[in-house]
C-alpha cells in the first residue's frame, strides 16, 4: 500500500465518469459488509430506485439483472478477497458494452483469477518524492522539520519509495 492506487483511481473516475450511463466508486472494501457494498453499487448507478438487498445471493441477482445492460464505470478500491468481486458480480462481461471496471488491489493474483484484460502496476516513488510525501504527512510541509531530515530520509529510503506503507 501507499503507492497511490486510490489517488490514481480517483483521478480516472473524476475525469471519465461523465462518459458513462452510470458510475460507482466503491472504497474501503476491506471494512465493509458485502450486502452494503452491493447496495451502494446499485444505488450509485440507479439512484432513487429501490436498492435494498437482503442477502449476498439476492444482491448478485439484482446487480446482474438491473446493471447487466448498462454502460458503467465502476471502481472497486482496495480489494483483498475474491468474495468481494463475486458479490459485486464483477466478471469480464458483467455490465453493458463499453463498461469499464477498475480494480485496485495489493494482490495481483486476484486479477489473474478474474482474467483481467490489463494490469497496470504503479512504480515506486523516487526517494526525493517519498521524502516529500512523508514530510507532508509527518510535518505538514514538503520537507522535514529541522533536526529530522536524516531520520526522515532514512525512513523514506527504508520504505523503498512507498512512504505511507
Question: Overview of this structure, please?
Answer:
- The protein is α/β, with parallel strands linked by helices and 165 residues long.
- The protein has two domains: 5-113, Rossmann fold; 127-158, no CATH class.
- Helix content is 44%, strand content 12%.
- It has seven helices and three strands, in the order H-E-H-H-E-H-E-H-H-H.
- The chain has helices at residues 5-16, 34-46, 56-67, 82-87, 108-113, 127-139, 149-158; strands at 22-26, 72-79, 100-105.
- A three-stranded parallel sheet has the order 1-2-3, sandwiched between helices.
- Helix 4 links the parallel strand 2 and strand 3.
- Helix 2 (34-46) packs parallel to helix 3 and helix 6 (127-139) packs across helix 7 (149-158).
- The radius of gyration is 19 Å and the shape is elongated.
- The termini are close together.
- The relative contact order is 0.15.
- It holds the Pfam family NB-ARC.
- This is NBS-LRR-like protein.
Structural class: alpha/beta
* Number of E-state strands: 3
Per the CATH scheme, the topology name of the largest domain is Rossmann fold
What percent of residues are in strands?
5-15%
Tally the helices: what do you get?
7
Give the CA-CA distance, first to last residue: 5 Å
CATH first level of the largest domain: which class?
Answer: Alpha Beta
**Largest β sheet strand count, sense and barrel closure:** 3 strands, parallel
Second CATH tier, the architecture of the largest domain: 3-Layer(aba) Sandwich
Question: Mean pLDDT, nearest integer?
Answer: 85
Q: How would you describe the shape? A: elongated
Q: Rounded to an integer, what's the Rg over CA atoms?
A: 19 Å
Secondary-structure element series:
HEHHEHEHHH
> Which regions contain 5 or more consecutive residues with pLDDT less than 50?
none
**Helicity, as a percent range:** 40-55%
Widest sheet, order of strands = 1-2-3
The name of the CATH superfamily of the largest domain reads P-loop containing nucleotide triphosphate hydrolases
How many domains comprise the coordinates? 2
GO molecular function: ADP binding
Protein name: NBS-LRR-like protein
Domain NB-ARC: 1-142
InterPro entries: Disease_R_plants (IPR044974), NB-ARC (IPR002182), P-loop_NTPase (IPR027417)
